[in-house]
Structure formats: C-alpha cells, structure tokens
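Sequence, please.
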C-alpha cells in the first residue's frame, strides 16, 4: 500500500486501472495475469544489470523467441500486427482529423499512451483496441487485423508458466541446452536403526 501512496500520479493511475482489471469478473485469467504483472512492475520496479528500470519489450521478446521456436512465430505475428495497427490508427486519425489529445479524451487513455502506440513503443491491450475502435467508430478488426490477439498474448503468458506445450523435439533441445542442477549441499546418510 505504501508504494501506491508514494508513487507518481501517472503510476498510481496505471496501478488503479490494473486493480480494476483484476476485480472485473469478465476479464480472462490470462488478462488478469498480465494485469498483475503490470501492477507488480509499476509498484515494485526492478533494475536490470545496467541499473535501468523497465523492460525493453522488443529485447525481451527476441530473447524468448530465440529460446522457443514456437514462440518466435507468435512474436513475429504480433510484431506484424502491431505495425499494421499503428499504421491503421494513424490513417484513421488523419482521415477523421482527430488529434492524439482528442482521441485520448474519447478513449480515457492518456495522450502519451496514444503517442507510444503510434510509435510502436508499447503494445495496446485488447480492451484499449476496443476503446479506440469505438472512439473512431470502426470495427476493432479495422485497427488490429486479428483482434483475437489475446490468444497470442495468452501464448506468451503460458510460456512464462509450466502450462506451455512444446513438441518432443523442442523439449529435447531445451533439455540438451539446460544447465544441470548441481547440488550445493551434500547430505549424509542417516544411521541405520538398530532394534
């Protein structure tokens, strides 16, 4: 609770939005998991090796894709759709003479968030895509070609848990590359009981 009180207004707003997502019974478990990760990152930031905070989404995805070939296909698909989304959003805003500020007001998003989406610095959540489509009076698929992006995001979320399903060949490749767990504590056998 202290972190919520001590953070900036912008971080507090994100945290409260994520708490609303967590309390919404219509939200999927994968979306709730992503919201809880966002909430944790907002309130308890962890610096990387260089002392920087936050995560480079592109770097994170490329690292995960290099380790999991099945995930690489999903990351490529999301990247393509994200580029299409940014182009389509920009085109629709221009065609309707809607500024970032006006669109932010219509959707309840911040203007910097709209800017970040247009520059592809952040990936919108499904509910944000739906808000943008509603504000622009277009079907959501006009913005994001495959609005069922939550399935792809679910695949990434699943990759972070033990629920991921991989082929036998992928499992064998991972097993071959995985470091072997070496015990650090030697256990002494217990003495035998005498009767």
């Amino acid at each position: 609770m202290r972190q919520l009180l001590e953070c900036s207004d912008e971080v507090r707003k994100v945290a409260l939005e994520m708490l609303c997502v967590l309390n919404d019974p219509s939200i999927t478990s994968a979306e709730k998991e992503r919201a809880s990760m966002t909430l944790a990152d907002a309130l308890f930031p962890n610096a990387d090796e260089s002392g920087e905070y936050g995560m480079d989404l592109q770097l994170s995805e490329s690292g995960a894709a290099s380790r999991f070939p099945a995930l690489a296909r999903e990351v490529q698909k999301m990247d393509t759709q994200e580029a299409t989304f940014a182009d389509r959003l920009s085109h629709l805003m221009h065609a309707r003479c809607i500024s970032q500020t006006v669109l932010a007001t219509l959707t309840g998003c911040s203007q910097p968030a709209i800017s970040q989406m247009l520059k592809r610095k952040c990936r919108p959540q499904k509910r944000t895509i739906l808000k943008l489509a509603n504000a622009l009076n277009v079907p959501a698929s006009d913005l994001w070609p495959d609005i069922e992006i939550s399935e792809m995001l679910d695949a990434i979320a699943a990759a972070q848990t033990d629920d991921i399903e991989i082929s036998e060949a992928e499992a064998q490749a991972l097993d071959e590359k995985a470091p072997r767990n070496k015990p650090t504590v030697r256990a002494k056998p217990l003495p035998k009981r005498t009767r």
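The chain has eleven helices and no strands.
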